[in-house]
């Protein structure tokens, strides 16, 4: 999250961490106004039958999490935009303010908010929610390392054992729950919240009906954010993407997050009111290379590949336009342009076969009957692995194989194992090349920790840094960036990390890893769109509450 763009439309602030993020968000409208009586919105998932009822927002396998309706019932302190300006909008907090080293967060609870059972929301609910991590009643699966809270008038300061600069959204997106109900829950880690009157939140919608076929929520008439145009939400899970696409085209479903092949022909052309938004994030679809084995133990080969692989083809063909290419030698996408060092500004890779061949020749490579031969006299070949059925990245595998064969004479084997085999290989380091996503922290740290940080290797199994890059100076810089108490220290660390990435090419980002959203404007307008990315259009993200306060009747 870039401090220079924090708050977005609520007012610009400087890059000084101590400045408060303040704003009224959606709370200036008349909260006593009744909900409109327009059409319900049906939100679709392609995950098959969700058979077990659970409304617990802290459980990843609860129906509330799988469908995504937890996010319209239980609200966070603030919303961190993963796209657009990467800014922060205060939500249940009227303001949020980090200290210099991001080990303490001061929040002022929003006044005039009620839980859906009519009880007043107060700062006690915020402290109680976080204290569940402290007293062990709730497992700290997000790694917040929360240490306690202090209260000074209306202000509450939450403290953490380490810096949250690269994990601000994990703190700010914590769902706040009502103390008067949850203090009576024996085990918040397992309770499904299915008892009468227990699924209580501050959000814009309240649970109305749950079944294995669908879940219905109705507008909260006392919502602090004011009148809601959409009177009800229906959550439905279809068997697969094909069934979901059919539902979107027929109008049976209104809103979804899915990768739809041939989306122009299969969805957009069916109705002028159908829309698709791919919102770029700071993450990226990335080609990870095993730096510990041939042929990728040679940085010259890695750099030659970076000058050969066509990122625009990845966007246009593999992703069907649902991405943006990443050409910068720093590996950073356009959203993070402000973190590109001056010496690398404008320095980009391109599809430049002459340059790629020149790099290889200088490193002792040659060609025999158009096959690339390494300095030891062996033909260069490798395999690239992506699970079967990941259609976009399966297509990219084929593209890379064609590009490298034609341009450099490298034979690339396309490997499409099942998920289990692929997952084992990426963790154990028994692959040669894979396509994978990055840890998205909203800043440059996400790319560089994902590709160069040894912290991800535990018991010789990798969660990121699959190539097992290891340079003590870079490791120190990564730790400094994450924990620095000044912008100057963070900038100095960035210089070390970025220079190492440019010089070593430990991985090759292909294109932004976007958040996807399909929706129609038949009944409502005000959706995020190009030029107004106040949130992504993905209904599974926390920003859904902001979208629902922005929607207005069409016409």
Automatic annotation (TrEMBL):
Pfam families: SBP_bac_5 (PF00496). It comes from the Bacteria. Residues 1-20 form the signal peptide. Residues 89-450 form the Solute-binding protein family domain. GO terms for biological process: peptide transport. PROSITE patterns: PROKAR_LIPOPROTEIN. GO terms for molecular function: peptide transmembrane transporter activity. Keywords: Signal. One of its GO terms (cellular component) is ATP-binding cassette (ABC) transporter complex. InterPro entries: Peptide/Ni-bd, SBP_5, SBP_5_dom. CDD domains: PBP2_TmCBP_oligosaccharides_like. PANTHER family: ABC-TYPE DIPEPTIDE_OLIGOPEPTIDE TRANSPORT SYSTEM, PERIPLASMIC COMPONENT, PERIPLASMIC BINDING COMPONENT OF ABC TRANSPORTER. This is Peptide ABC transporter substrate-binding protein.
